[in-house]
């Protein structure tokens, strides 16, 4: 029997505690995101657009009115991520979205079959 001296990739769980600084533990409300790539990193801008402005813009578009060239919003926070961190965030977001979909599907009423 031959010995196996191959290294195996292992995922190790690590308990990380993030300690807030100043008010960094306070949630920031964002309803808009934008990504900008740069060498070695990606900037993620989280912004806030006034819901009333979005509703007015939607009504304007439906009525055939002239859409403004720009819409002003507020930059809530900008986060710079390295590609490895961005990939980890992508994986985590996928897991959260899948969990939310499963939860929604469990709560949805079952559709009754209609016989023809």
Structure explained in plain terms:
By secondary structure, this protein is of the alpha+beta class. It has a domain of 76 residues. 32% of the residues lie in helices and 21% in strands. It is built from two helices and three strands, in the order E-E-H-E-H. A three-stranded antiparallel β-sheet has the order 1-2-3. The longest helix is centred in the last third of the chain and has 25 residues. It starts with 31 loop residues before the first strand and ends in a 9-residue tail after the last helix.
Keyphrases for this structure?
alpha+beta; 3-stranded antiparallel beta sheet
What proportion of the residues form beta strands (DSSP E)?
15-25%
Q: Over all CA atoms, what is the radius of gyration?
A: 23 Å
Side by side, the strands of the main sheet go: 1-2-3
| Total helical segments | 2
Helix-strand pattern: EEHEH
Percentage of residues in helical conformation: 25-40%
* Average pLDDT figure: 87
Q: Spans of 5+ residues with little confidence (pLDDT < 50)?
A: none
Spatial gap, N to C terminus: 65 Å
Assembly of the depicted chains? single chain
Summarize the structure.
The protein starts with 31 loop residues before the first strand and ends in a 9-residue tail after the last helix. The chain is of the alpha+beta class. It is built from 2 helices and 3 strands.
